[in-house]
Amino acid sequence: MKPSVILTAAFLFTLPALAAIGWQPVTPAELALKTPKIDPSADAEAIFWDVRIEDRLQGGDLSMTMDHYIRLKIFTDRGKEQYSTVEIPLYGKRSIMDIAGRTIKPDGTVIDLKKDSIFDRDMLKTKGLKVKGKSLALPNVEVGDIIEYRYKEVRDNETASHMRLYFQRELPLWRVTYHLKPLNVPFLPYTMRTMAFHCNNTPFEKEANGFYATTATNIPAFQHEPDMPPDDQLMSWLLIYYEQDWKATGDKYWKEVSKRDYSTFKPLMKADDLVKNTAAEVISGAATDEDKLNALDRFCRTKVKSTTSSSSHMTGEERKAVKENKSPHDTLKQMAGTGEDITLLFAALANAAGFDARMARVPDRGDIFFAWNQPSTYFLRALDVAVKLGEKWKLFDPATPYLEWGMLRWQEEGQRALVSDPKEGLLVDTQSLPAARSMTKRRATLKLFEDGSLQGTVRYMMTGHVGRERRALYEELGPAEQEADWKGGMEARLGGGAEITGFNVQNLADPNQPLDIKLTISVPGYAVRTGKRLLVQPAFFQHNHGPRYTSATRKWDIYFKYAWAEDDEVVLELPEGWVLDEPVAPTSSKLGNVGHYSVELLKTNDGRKLIYRRRMEWGKDQAILLPVEGYPQVKNVFEWMQQQDDHTMSLKQEKAVRLVP
Predict the structure, then answer these.
(1) Of 56, 61, 67, which is closest to residue 12 (Cα–Cα)?
(2) Rounded distance between C-alpha atoms, residue 441 and residue 467, angstroms
(3) Half-sphere exposure (CA, 13 Å, Cβ side) for 494?
(4) Between 20 and 30 A from 183 (CA), which of 202, 476, 598, 633?
């Protein structure tokens, strides 16, 4: 990481905005180019990606403008399909204006974007989020063309603070330039700083009109791989932010943050009589400290509605009716509040119950692997409650839906958290769920017919992170949409002829019970008929699963979000008159130091049913980040498991016995 850079600019805030950028000349070399410059296999490359960012303070209003200008060269039909339509998302109270675009043919002919090729459209729509945007259809794009477009983005009541400026994208970039014009308010102790990640950009140079520019060149496309660390842990980008210089670094900086947090949050966790009486009532009958905290956690989750979570299913009118809470007392009176209100309430209740509960900042490893030599709280935005149990601290997140007792989001597991303290900066390790807690338990009772078709009942039970991810997805969907989603997944694996009926979801809102999904299924052609034999795969839940890794080589480390386990049992009734032909079971094995895989294959005494049991665990002792050098071994392990899962059994018809009178 490069040292922080401080940007300042002296200018009058009332100066007029920079005039709209005109089209830059296209060179003969750009027009004539037939093959990529950076990556021979690229479908398109960006000749330049230019962004001009200006923060303004006019009167008492803040605003930010971003002028975008992108020029691409198209090399293949796939590049034409991918880049000839441009989508510009629009979040919150932002606006897009001054859109222009054009296609430039190799002979220099220019075809301008027409207004009727610019559309307003919904890009994302869920119960909790709706994203609109603009869609541009650039005209008459063919292989060999240059396309370019520009637009202005205006964000009211925003600044560029904590904005991520990406130098790397999904296609190779010849040149990326950012021009920044930061705020410079003499009476505020804030200056713009930068923090670089994997960047080879030039130092900022002063330009006209108070702008500063930095450039990077010849940047390869970002490469995605299965099971890799988060994008921003690997990509080339720059964080820009406004922050006061606290004149502290390293341990001293974090000690100061911890002390400030303690002073800030202590009065917000005040336990008055209402809080004390509520805590006493909630924990009455609880025998152990864990039972008491579990009761308080469940109370906050089930009794207090969150105005900031869609899982509370509050209507718009109900959310508007909730007044701002200034204390845990207010939250209890309304039995509703923001996620932070609920977190502070849990801390106040825990303190009232005799525990030492404090607020804690936690990094998000789903975003980036935080390094404590970064003197900024930006990457520690999650607030949890740290409660001291014996000599150790345990963290709680009562405001995040669908967490089981003692569970954090996977993004916060195995991290170091900063606990508020009046004297010292306390760094404590957050807990992680063992693989067995994130379990997918699957059961199937099936009947095989001589034509190879299969019918029966199937059940899925999910806990831990596996259950929470499915719950978070299904809370946004109605019953019909849930069924359609599940059917789509099963039909993609088992074939379009698979029929699913009786789909039923239970315990969707109760994370302390396994998420339970039941259905009835019919699959034509599951087994393969070859002459007088049927070939059947007993591992029904792995049928037609493709390989996890296909590439022979790899660039990034292997990173799994969390440890998990699978527990399968398939009871397969054989067709009348058919028996197993010299059955051989798949192989079991320990998977090095990271897990295990075991298979058991049985048949009933009468030979009419086959019982297949499979157990798999991955991420033993939280071995979820593995070096890229170990990729061949990891790939081999998953290929070996797939071979065992694909194991087929041969069935043959019993010989008819002729009775002699």
Answers:
(1) 56
(2) 11
(3) 25
(4) 202
Written as six digits, the tokens of 368 are: 């980036």
Q: What is the dihedral of CA 219, 221, 224, 229, to 10 degrees?
A: 10
β 85-90/416-419 pair status: unpaired
Q: Which of 175, 164, 172 is nearest to 222 (CA)?
A: 172
User: Hunting for tokens 């130098």 — which residue is that?
Assistant: 167
Q: Residue 139 region, left (φ>0) first, then alpha (ψ -120 to 50), else beta?
A: beta
Q: Which residue has the tokens 């932070």?
A: 340
Q: Please, are residues 273 and 319 in contact by the beta-carbon 8 Å criterion?
A: no
Calpha distance 198→192 (Å, rounded): 20
User: In Å, how far from its chain's centre is CA 331?
Assistant: 30
Residues 600-611 have pLDDT tens digits of: 999 998 889 999
Count of C-beta atoms within a 10 Å radius of residue 122: 9
- Distance CA(23)–CA(448), nearest Å, equals 68
212-248 burial code (b ≥16 CB/10 A, e <16): bbbbbeebebeeebebbbbebbbbbbbbbbbbeeeee
Beta bridge partners of 100: 150
Other CB atoms closer than 10 Å to residue 369's CB: what's the count? 15
First to last CA, the chain: 92
pTM of structure = 0.89
d(CA 371, CA 373): 5
Q: Supply 266's token pair.
A: 């202590």
The residue behind tokens 């049927």 is: 534
Please name the residues in contact with 178: beta carbons below 8 A apart, sequence gap of 6 or more: 51, 52, 53, 165, 213, 214, 215, 238
CA 499 vs CA 328, 487, 506, 517, 524: distances in Å: 51, 8, 21, 16, 9
Q: In this structure, are strands 173-181 and 44-58 parallel, antiparallel, or unpaired?
A: parallel
- CA-to-CA dists, residue 89 to 96, 133, 214, angstroms: 9, 4, 25
Residues in the chain, overall count: 661
What are the residues whose beta carbons fall under 8 Å from the beta carbon of 478, sequence distance 6 or more?
A: none
Residue 251: the pLDDT is 85
Alpha helices by DSSP H, listed for 370-518, are: 464-474, 479-494
Phi and psi at 214, nearest 5°, equal -140, 145
Q: Within a 13 Å sphere around the CA of 462, how many CA atoms are in the beta-carbon half?
A: 19
Range 44-58 burial, b when 16+ CB lie within 10 A, else e: bbbbbbbbbbbbbee
Q: Name the DSSP class of 367.
A: T
For the beta sheet containing 564-573, the strands, ordered from the edge strand earlier in sequence to the opposite edge, are 499-506, 515-523, 454-462, 439-448, 564-573, 609-618, 595-603, 589-591
Contacts of 464 (CB under 8 A, 6+ apart): 404, 407, 433, 437, 438, 439, 562, 564
Indicate the residue type of 621: D
Closest by CA position to 614, among listed 571, 650, 581: 571
- Measured distance CA(160)–CA(177) in Å, rounded: 16
pLDDT digits (tens, 9 = 90+) for 263-321: 999 999 999 999 999 999 999 999 999 999 999 999 999 999 999 988 888 888 999 99
The predicted model gives 11-18 an average pLDDT of: 28
